[in-house]
Design a protein that fits this description.
InterPro entries: DUF3737 (IPR022208), Pectin_lyas_fold (IPR012334), Pectin_lyase_fold/virulence (IPR011050). Pfam families: DUF3737. The chain is an all-beta fold. It has one domain (5-116): Pectate Lyase C-like (3 Solenoid), CATH 2.160.20. Helices cover 0% and strands 48% of the residues. It has strands spanning 5-7, 16-21, 24-28, 35-40, 43-47, 54-59, 62-65, 73-78, 81-84, 92-97, 100-102, 114-116. The strands form 2 sheets. Strands 1-3-5-7-9-11 form a 6-stranded parallel sheet, with no helix packed on it. It is globular.
């Protein structure tokens, strides 16, 4: 998907092998239970995004969400702004590189969490 504007309460559930570039999305439960995601320059606003996802890469994105990446596995987030109230709870294998993180209770109960600057 490229140059798309998405407005949908429940978009992308249980999809596999999706690439999204230069898109905007407003949603709840966005991409829930999806696998093999590759996002670049995506702006997202909504609640409960990317829950239960596996094998995902997000680069140069802006996410304004409530609790992204819950129970997510093998996720790399690079050069993003991520605003989330309960960000990445119960995630396993989350890597954040050069990200701005805004949240009230991020990263509770994470396994193999890595946060770094280049």
């Amino acid at each position: 998907m490229e140059n798309c504007d998405i407005i949908s309460q429940e978009f992308g559930w249980s999809v596999k092998n999706i690439t999204m570039n230069k898109c905007t999305a407003i949603s709840e439960y966005f991409m829930m239970r999806s696998e093999n995601l590759k996002f670049g320059d995506v702006e997202f606003k909504g609640k409960y995004s990317f829950q239960y996802i596996e094998n995902a890469t997000f680069e140069n994105c802006i996410f304004d969400t409530k609790d992204a990446f819950w129970h997510g596995k093998n996720i790399t987030v690079k050069n993003n702004v991520v605003k989330g109230e309960y960000l990445a709870w119960y995630s396993d294998g989350l890597t954040l590189i050069d990200c701005k993180i805004i949240g009230t209770q991020p990263f509770c109960y994470c396994k193999k969490l890595k946060i770094s600057k280049l």
